[in-house]
Amino acid sequence: MMQILFVSITSTVMHAYINQTVDIILSGLLLLGGVLGVQMGAFVVQKISGEVLRMLLGIIIFCLCLFLISELVIDPRYIFILDLLQ
């Protein structure tokens, strides 16, 4: 795991410095969010039972399905109006 972490950090810094193809601020924020999310997730999993976690996951997936279906079926109101961007 440490090898993957070392290679990932090295390649991110090299791409950000040499090729300027990686936003170093964004990658740092994503790294920070991932580390904090893992810590909070590990804490929550210890406090909540498996059945409740499965139910929450099912609810999240169901809501995501409803959102994707609504995006697929409902026509956007302002698809080509550029006045909204001003």
Biggest pleated-sheet summary: none
**How many beta-strand elements?**
0
Strand content: under 5%
- How many helix segments? 3
Shape from CA axes? flat
- The portion of residues assigned to helices is over 70%
If you compute it from the alpha carbons, what radius of gyration comes out, rounded to the nearest whole angstrom?
20 Å
Distance between the termini: 47 Å
Mean pLDDT over the residues: 86
Uncertain residue segments:
none
SS class:
mainly alpha
What's the number of domains? 1
Note the run of SSEs as H and E. Answer: HHH
Question: What does it look like?
Answer:
By secondary structure, the protein is mostly helical. It has one domain. It is built from three helices and no strands. It has helices at 2-19, 24-47, 50-73. The longest helix is centred in the middle third of the chain and has 24 residues, at 24-47. 0% of the residues are buried.
